[in-house]
Amino acid sequence: MKVIVVTGASSGIGLSIAQFLGQKGHSIYGVSRSKIHEKNIKSIQADVTDFDQLKAAYQEIFELEGHIDVLINNAGMGISGTIEDTSSEDATYLFNVNLMGVFNSTKAVLPFMRESGGGKILNISSVASKLSIPFQAFYSSSKAAVNSFSEALANEVAPFNIQVCSVMPGDIRTGFTKNRKKNAVDSPEYKNRVDQSVSVMEKDEINGMDPISAAKVIHRLVQKRRIPLYITIGFKYKVIVLLAKLLPAKLANYIVGSIYAFKKGK
Ligand SMILES: NC(=O)c1ccc[n+]([C@@H]2O[C@H](COP(=O)([O-])OP(=O)(O)OC[C@H]3O[C@@H](n4cnc5c(N)ncnc54)[C@H](OP(=O)(O)O)[C@@H]3O)[C@@H](O)[C@H]2O)c1
Fold first, then answer.
1. Disulfide-capable partner of 6 in 23, 72, 86, 246 (CB 3.0 to 4.6 Å)?
2. Is pLDDT of 265 > 80?
3. Atom 23 in ligand 1: which residue has the minimum CA distance?
4. Which ligand 1 atom sits nearest the alpha carbon of residue 179?
5. Of all protein residues, whose CA lies closest to atom 41 belonging to ligand 1?
6. Is 13's C-beta closer than 6 angstroms to any atom of ligand 1?
7. Ligand 1 site, residue 169, Cβ cutoff 6 A
8. Does ligand 1 have an atom closer than 6 angstroms to the CB of 22?
9. Run of H or E residues at 260
10. What is the pLDDT of residues 131-173, one digit of tens each?
11. Which of 38, 176, 233 has most ligand 1 atoms within 8 Å of CB, for mutation?
């Protein structure tokens, strides 16, 4: 039985991970701003943008359980719209949740994980970290930053028997689509293209994988003795990430643009 903390466990991927791992007999603590009412999940109401809340929560878990074995940094959100029309407040807030939230949670858990003799930190990134999506610049770059953070972290904490993995899901059906914050206004010069682009993205998400597919991948990572630095969820998305690696960057970006940028403004 492992003691596992999942951030963003009130909905979507995090909820599915927490339920699945709870059913496997692990002791699950779910962090989110809203309360979680689930049999196998101990609810911690905290905001990942607040380091002190997380530190107090993880200290309490450690005192109660004697160890923290796995941290899954899953809490996240999206914004969409043109770079030109995005407010600094929205961009800053997104980075506060998606990147600083991972930092706060990791920093808060590390003393306890080291004290536990080791563990695993699984950061939920996205395929968008490898192929930046137009009109989702801040989301894509926050996830690229999560990957970079994971790489540095992995080397820093390896001597403490702590392993790190950046998990990159493809499209998954969750509340993420409805929770995405759209720019209040996108300039008329872009408006049609933004609408078409976001609707392609939303359609892909609504027709995406069941969150259980992510829960199963995470369960395998929890069980494994050695874990990879990166893992992509979904066969189609594994091929896309491989192509992004093999193709010249400009060509890969052109292909993404032909799917999501509507350069001719159809
Ligand atoms: N769905 C996809 O297609 C997809 C693809 C790739 C990657 N991802 C990533 O997967 C992760 C989970 O997304 P999801 O699709 O499951 O979306 P979701 O259904 O909207 O769930 C987001 C979770 O994050 C929590 N959260 C948001 N802001 C928070 C904050 N400030 N403090 C604490 N918790 C916060 C929410 O809980 P509260 O609102 O209760 O706080 C909720 O539990 C995200 O990091 C997302 O970027 C999703």
1. 72
2. no
3. 8
4. 20
5. 33
6. yes
7. yes
8. no
9. helix 249-260
10. 999 999 999 999 999 999 999 999 999 999 999 999 999 999 9
11. 176
Nearest-angstrom CA–CA distance, 56 and 45 = 11
Determine whether the shortest distance from the Cβ of 97 to ligand 1 is under 6 A. yes
Q: How many domains does the chain have?
A: 1
Q: How far is the CA of 15 from the centre of ligand 1 (A)?
A: 9
**Residues taking part in catalysis:** 10, 125, 139, 143
pLDDT band of residue 263 (cuts 50, 70, 90) is confident
Q: 76 near 124, Cβ under 8 Å?
A: yes
How many whole angstroms separate alpha carbon 20 and alpha carbon 3?
14
In a domain, 201, yes or no: yes
Q: Is 49 in the pocket of ligand 1 (CB under 6 A)?
A: yes
At residue 78, φ and ψ (nearest 5 deg) are -130, 155
Mean pLDDT of 13-24: 98
What is the crossing angle of helices 88-95 and 137-157, to 10°? 30
Q: 63-101: per-residue pLDDT in tens?
A: 999 999 999 999 999 999 999 999 999 999 999 999 999
Structural domain of 13: 3-260
- Whether the model clears a pTM of 0.90, i.e. scores above it, the answer is yes
| Domain annotation covers residue 65 | yes
Assigned domain for 104 exists: yes
Position 265 in a domain: no
